[in-house]
Amino acid sequence: xxxxxxxxxxxxxxxxxxxxxxxxxxxxxxxxxxxxxxxxxxxxxxxxxxxxxxxxxxxxxxxxxxxxxxxxxxxxxxxxxxxxxxxxxxxxxxxxxxxxxxxxxxxxxxxxxxxxxxxxxxxxxxxxxxxxxxxxxxxxxxxxxxxxxxxxxxxxxxxxxxxxxxxxxxxxxxxxxxxxxxxxxxxxxxxxxxxxxxxxxxxx
Length: 204
Fold this sequence. Notes:
- This protein has eight helices and five strands, in the order E-H-E-H-H-E-H-H-E-H-H-E-H.
- Helix 4 (about 95-105) packs across helix 7 (about 160-175).
- The protein has helices spanning about 20-30, 45-55, 60-85, 95-105, 110-120, 135-145, 160-175, 190-200; strands at about 5-10, 35-40, 90-95, 130-135, 180-185.
- Strands 2-3-1-4-5 form a five-stranded parallel beta sheet, sandwiched between helices.
- The mean pLDDT is about 95.
- The protein has a single domain, classed as P-loop containing nucleotide triphosphate hydrolases (Rossmann fold, 3-Layer(aba) Sandwich).
């Protein structure tokens, strides 16, 4: 790859397999001798990991949103922008769509205000491709049952997660052609991985 790199984000509700698939795809791309930077939200930087710990506590809706945006601003500045400038493929487990889905559709915060705050935090850097791993919330929550390392949003009631999924579906429908791809993550891991890997490979 020459010039500016590609920015790929894995999105979806709880238990959809984002973290596992992001790691698997990054590893396969590295085997293909492509330069890859794998990161996550919230996290990926010293500041971001501190914010991740804060998000295990219950915050006011806007407090929660700003915590995610703080972590994102640091991630863009320290990791994402430099990696893209160097020509690498950046693979991120969650990014801006999570804020719109969880704090917007889930918590009920105004979407346009969230979008403007996100633009300021990221400098307008958006993914080249968002892979939406779609899964019925009731199935995803069963997959996550008993997991300890989970932020507050992951512990909300089913109705919250239904709103989050609806938000993702609406963003998918409104996205410019080629910028989002839905992947049915209720299928076997190998099948889901192949779909995700092929989608990312097309960018490289």
